[in-house]
Batch of 3 targets.
Target 1
Amino acid sequence: MQPAAYDRRVTGELGALLETGQAALEAGGWEAAREAFAAALEREESPEAQFGLGEALLWLGETDETVRLDERAYAGFRRRPDPVNAAIAAMNLFFLHRVSLGNVAASRGWLGRMERLVEAHDLEPLRGWAVLLRAVDRGEADPPAGEALARRALEAAREGGDVDLELCALAQAGALAVEAGRMEEGFALLDEAMAGALGGEGRRLDTILITSCTMIACCSRAAQVRRAAQWIRAGDDFVRRYGSPHVFTVCRLHSGNVLMATGRWAEAEAQLEDAIQSSRRADPALFAEALAKLAELRLAQGRAEEAAGLVAGFEDRPISVAAVAGVHMARGEPGRAAAVLRRRLRAIGDRCLESAPLVDLLAEAEGAMGARRTARSRARRLGDAGSAAGCEVMLAYAERALGRTERDRARAAAIRHLEWALDAFGRLEMPLEAGRCHLLLAATQGEREREAAIAEARSALAAFDALGAARDADAAAALLRSLGARAGRAPGARASGR
């Protein structure tokens, strides 16, 4: 965020340089802004110059230096005293630590400093921003509470006429509604926020950055393939004009995730590799997320040890849970996979969008351990939440998890659950997940419905070979052979482990 105003009048050559730098920032001229603010700092260590230079460097991808400059600017504004700009610097540091660096503790510290300044000095124009930051913080652990705070920030924005706050609060409220499974409502808010931001309603360029990143991340998590592609195209002009490394990385990361889900794995790999390279220095949090997503792709390809190498050192990050658990499953360690998944589900619950694939994977792990009763209850809770919200992704994973848990005790019910999941994943254009439903159906039908089982296994094998899902293809081929059927492989198909 750029300082809203300066509490002292800076004149002479220093004042001219600050004005030049500020004008360059507003026009997206990052190099020109850097030169002007750097020249201003040579004349005086002013917090305005420090903060302005940090803003320019952030857009140029130099996150660590931005943090250092913003901390110095904050201290300078406090000493002056200038509580307005000190609070804005604290707000900036919250976003830097939370979004770019993934440091939750530091971000909460800066949020606390901002809130204290707002209360102590009655900074009414910033009160709504403080509420929005608290919504971001609370929303990760408690989406309903976070959403309520985001809607309070939205009311404050409309009462105060702050369009930037309104658009950012709309995006956050929409994202938390999506996370709760209320897709139609949530994406309506996100679409509105994106339209306003890209339409130039806000005064700050980082409003476009916040709304765009929030939208694309939600599309990725909710398998909203077409919406993601449409908004990425709509935002291409912004990225070309202003060259934001953060927006570039977020778009590549979530484009890669969408492409992976829809079976376009070569393109997904290219996008994720780009995201890894662009975030390596500037966005450590996004770097870890991109590595985790590439690890999930490697697991799908049957390359478990490569996946393990990608998340080495990031195993305790929430974003790495699916990949870490998948590695344990590939190594034949369902107990370790279950422990990782249960820990994350205790933190987020089993009724939200993030939990959907984790509940299904945990049902697989617990099934391998003979602990299906708990998995069945968990899957039903997820299904109830998905049904109440009308969220097809949550329902698809819940139905597949139920199919896994019912196989040994209620075969007909298991088949119904798996067929529902298969149809849903087909509608969602998620071929790997649909292929896995075919394979589970074949295993459930088995010798009792041999011809149907062979047909399902062949559908699974064809899907896996087309994708390059080697380990799943090997499992389908083995099942076909156990049914006495020939496991014909597609040309160029390879067994896993090679």
Target 2
Amino acid sequence: MTEAFFHDALERLDAVETLIGAEDRELRADVLGWRSRACWLSGRWDEALASADAAVAALSGLPESPQLARALARRSQIAMLQQRPEASRYAREAIEVARRVGDSFAEVNARINLLTQLATSGVAPDPDETAQIVDEAATAGEYEEAYRALTNFTWSASGFLPLDRIEDVYAAGRRRLADVPPPKSIGPYIDVSFAFRVLLPGARWEEADAVLAEVARSGMAATARLAFLTVSGALALRRGQAESTRQLVEELQPLALASGEQQRIIPMACVALPWFVISGDRERLRSLTENLLASADRRWPAVLEAVPIVRALATAGEMELLERTAESLRTTPDVAASAQTALIAAEGLLALGRADAAQAVERLETASERERELGGRYTLACLELDLARALEAAGETGRAQEVRRRAASVLEPLGCVNPY
């Protein structure tokens, strides 16, 4: 599994299960825990959750043990990935058991899960805590977990911390782990995640291209493939490469929906919805938006950017869908970070649609300022295009021209054709 030979890993786990006696419940839990991880990495998401639950159930009634701590940690990991409401509770339970039985793997695994789940719920991750987890995992020889802590921080800090601060934490962690390369099971995912969460919003597209080229040469698991398709699709869309975008969206959309994970579905929609606007496919735009709203269910993760979604709906003139999306964001408990920026932008676009220029300017200026503080140069430029329209509607032509020139100074050197 560490070498990313997931089919072989699952075959061996199958063989082990045939040899386990009814009394070997701890060994069965170990096998099921590893199966949940291998299934998730290889794109067998439903089986990953079932195996994680079964690992915990296998130990029911037995005394606390390292096997129980690990089973609880794996369950919390899958629950976190699927944004299940019980994920934080599962992680805390796993941490407590891991500390009582002295299992370092289960403790660092569950701490990463808890940090990640709290961030999606609006609690900013602590860079110092992340550095501590990386160090403790490396000291215990749990290098996959150390690298996972870095990757999850890169995702979890988005919308909370400036991009340069996220990069500093990431770079320091990579230096700490420099003696041991990332395992092939997650190495490509680590690199693509950094490109997605730091390089794209930071308008560093040539660096993102280099990451994609390197990852494409090395091969990748299903989870990394989803992130790879998202980054590739975003770049192709923005550069006006219609056929490439179409092909990437056709592969990306069903995979993301099959995962059942918000962290796959929302980024996919940030590529697919603008593409449906550009290609004139209103039926698919509406269908995917309905699917997205049902999936989000008024629980938008704080750390996932959704500005391209609301901008696509506004561009398409789908104001009823935009209003419903704004309401879904607005009623998300403790809406924060990237989700809050998307809500503010949606409110500004709705105001622009109903000719309330003053409200549109106020909301879009607020959304733009939030991105400016975070260093999201590309996202800021996109928002400023909308702000310029609002300023023009408010009769502030001079300011509108200044804002539009500022946006163009970012977008034109990138070769951006479709600013979403």
Target 3
Amino acid sequence: MKLINLYRVTLTGLLACTLSAYGQQGSNNVEQRVDSILSQMTLGEKLSYIGGTPFFDVKPIPVPNLQVRFNPQLFQTDAGLGVRITPASVRYPAGPVLAATWNPDRARDLGAGLGRDTRARGFFTILGPGMDFYRTPFGGRNFEYATGEDPFLGSQLVPEVIKNIQEQGVWACAKHFVCNDQEANRTNINTIIDERTLREIYLPPFEAAVKEGHTATVMGAFNFVQIGTLPSAQCNESSFLLNQVLRRNGASKGS
């Protein structure tokens, strides 16, 4: 994926989230609004915006006279088993425990609790829930993934977590998109997978997160992925994953 396309995808996602945070996102015009904002920004301002501040936060839009009503700094907190980077937060049971209940009510309870804790600590976003699979006991992040080993189970539980986080007035973040099977050496691992397995095993929870949970944000995975005959690419730079699957089809398995 060319660098110019990567930065445009990143900017579009960040700006769309900024607009939706304050109720400015219309039903059909978010792309036009993003294009309007981008047209008012220099290359230097665009690069500055996607740089983040400090580690988890999104900067205010760095254009003093920009024709947009709000341009706040977006404060985000990491997740896992509760709200991180803050003291005195509730710690919840591991994701496999939720999956083992097969109970959407428990997913709703978890989401509501995470949402309340996030809002109470002044954050816009919590970087969860996680929804990858236990393909190996050495995964390293299995403790936070609420999907078990069943894509249908994940697609039933994950939207309930997300909806109840967002009912508390904060954003959820579906992660890690996609095929994040291993934590050790995570930025160099290359997951080799055929497209049918991708769509039938890995994508259903993400599709449900987008189409049923209406997740505000999606976090890319750290690893490389090689899908069928497509060349290997890092998940955050894969045009197939970001454009064809996520942006055009909402993580749909039917494209």
